Amino acid sequence: MLIREFADGYWPGVWPIISEVVRAGETFTYDPTMSEEQARAMWVEAPPGRTVVVVDGDRVLGTAKMGTNRPGPGSHVSTASFMVAADARGRGVGTALCRDALDWARRAGYAGMQFNAVAEANRAAVELYRRLGFEIVGTVPGAFAHPTLGRVGLHIMYREL
Length: 161
Fold this sequence. Notes:
The protein is of the alpha+beta class. It has four helices and seven strands, in the order E-H-H-E-E-E-H-E-H-E-E.
């Protein structure tokens, strides 16, 4: 399992992961009907942001994007998003991606990392982020329409660097 900088040749492995995660509607606040073109424009970060993939041989197991959370007076705080293929979950892919994003943010001089919308029903992600030092600093009640659980909260999570 290796983390690589995103290159165009990885997109055919990234798109199915994004499509699968977004269409499931259980974790991300993205439109489940987004097109491949919309997904690529949203996911592939321009510098100084960064997009990476986790590969095992030729197969993309997961992907992450990271960058500045807000411009101007908030530009000292980074953010990141992670997606892992369903059949690769539980193998440490998400942990590796999150650690890589934290390392990148430290090297880039950010003071912290903030996740703006972590669905509280996404227990695996919440626990992973907590293990890596993030805290829930607030929850917007009922802000996420989960397809089977109904409206659940969206956590804002933060970790100082």
